[in-house]
Amino acid sequence: MSLTSSVTSMVWDETTQARVRHALRGEEDAGLVFALGARTLALIVVGAWLIIEVPMPRASYYLGIIGLFLLLGAAHYVTRTRTEHPTAWTALFIALDSALLAVALIFPNPLSDAPWPIQGNLKIHNDLYLYIWLALAAISYSPILVIWTGITTMVAWSLAVWWVISLPSTITETNQHLATAADPLWVDQNFGLIFDPFFVSITGWANQVVLFLIATGLVAAAVWRSRKLLIRQARAERARGNLARFFSPNVVEQLADSDDALAEVRTQEVAVLFIDLVGFTRFAETLEPVAVIELLRTFHQRTAKVIFEHGGTIDKYLGDGIMATFGTPTPGAKDALAALHCACALRDTLDAWNREREAAGEPALRAGMGLHFGPVVVGAVGDSRCLEFTVIGDSVNVASRLERLTRQRNRSIIVSGAAIEMAEAQAESDTERALVNRFDRIEDAELRGRSARMPIWSPRAAGEAALPATAPTTTTD
Questions:
Q1: Helix crossing, 14-53 with 129-138: angle to 10°?
Q2: How far apart are CA 99 and CA 420, in angstroms?
């Protein structure tokens, strides 16, 4: 399994899944409350309009229907928030709302004086209001509730329609002896039937059912896809966030989108850079714990920014130090050169920070940096609960010992001869060669654990030219 997949699995454990499910349930609850609120506001507006436009006592019937909807909405809200089975209560109230909606749309106003047959209410396309009802269900963010709303709404509507069809006065296609299409009377007879106030089309009802159920499925699918998109984005962002803690931003997208970039353990040549604050332990003893943490955060933020700007990867934070690599996860054409430039940029960043600290009356800080280029083993170590992408090998030990050597030699940066040699080979422009030429060989040092002495280099202490503003370009194979 690749590290990208492992990272995703690591951050997408059972706890994370439970949090996402909890968040989705919260959105469902919030959506239902929002839908109830929107419905309440709409009903109040409709009620106000009815009072103005419809004379009494006819308006009182519609106001009573609105009042029942408001009562059902209030009861729905109370039971969902205060009972142990909110989903069951929601399903019940959706069914009650659907039944009341069918009654309101089909059954005539008993207080009306107009001689309007009940069959006529099926001719004025009241079924279009059902789609608004379905749209309100979509706000719940629950595909199951959307489907339930669609089914209960169409069942209630169909029952009401078939009750009207069962009335003795109702005319349908099945209880009339219609002329055939070849009969000259076919046009007059059929058009006359369609405009008959007592006619109810069974075919029209069937079309309503099919179209509404199709719309229900489409809306439910849209809600389901939006939930899946949310989950995928949450997983991707968690993976990207985890990767961004270690890798420069220019490679995070590559790693997050690829399952193979970090798939296998391998040996490759990289530049390893250690930076550590000198004497920080004794200095921290004089500070409050909060001040120590704040100081380390500032140090890490400033150094990480420089490392990422030069295409480096933060392997790990080491208290008051950082281990960075150049050439991971994939080797580049100028890794040693980029690491050399980064070391100088880190020193300049620390100098600028010290000027700020001294201006504020705070003591200056000193850092030592060790840089080496050589073969390492690259891979992920740990388990699914705590996974770390890292490099191991003798080259890491050499870089660490070079950093410690800066204290003995009173140098800010010590670079191995291997790193200088590789940087010279990678330098192409005059600016890049000038960067390498700023380093002088100071001695052949003896490092613990190594039998042969190692040539070490350091930037000359005085008279050096300013660093170029642009870092060497790092390209990946």
A1: 150
A2: 82
Q: Are 375 and 267 in contact (CB under 8 A)?
A: yes
Distance set, CA 46 to CA 40, 62, 67, 123, 449 (Å): 10, 9, 11, 22, 86
- Alpha carbon distance 74, 233 (integer Å): 35
pLDDT tens for 158-172 read 998 888 888 888 888
| CA angle in degrees (0–180, nearest 5) for 11-16-20 | 130
User: What mean pLDDT, rounded, does the chain reach?
Assistant: 79
CA–CA distance, 365 with 371 (Å, rounded to integer): 20
Q: In this structure, is the dihedral angle defined by the CA atoms of residues 274, 279, 280 and 281, taken in order, positive or negative?
A: positive
Phi, psi of 160 (to 5 degrees): -65, -40
The whole-angstrom separation of Cα 76 and Cα 40 is 12
Report the C-alpha gap between 437 and 422 in whole angstroms. Answer: 13
Beta bridge partners of 465: none
Which residues are bridge partners to 368 per DSSP? 276
The confidence band for 79, taking pLDDT boundaries of 50, 70 and 90, is confident
Residue 199 tokens read as 């006619």
pLDDT digits (tens, 9 = 90+) for 325-376: 998 888 889 999 999 999 999 999 999 999 999 999 898 999 999 999 999 9
Nearest CA among 336, 345, 342, 346 for reference residue 428: 336
* Percent share of the chain, pLDDT over 90: 29
Which of 320, 229, 226, 334 is CA-nearest to residue 280? 320
Structure tokens at 4: 């990208």
Sign of the dihedral defined by the CA atoms of residues 85, 88, 91, 94, in that order? negative
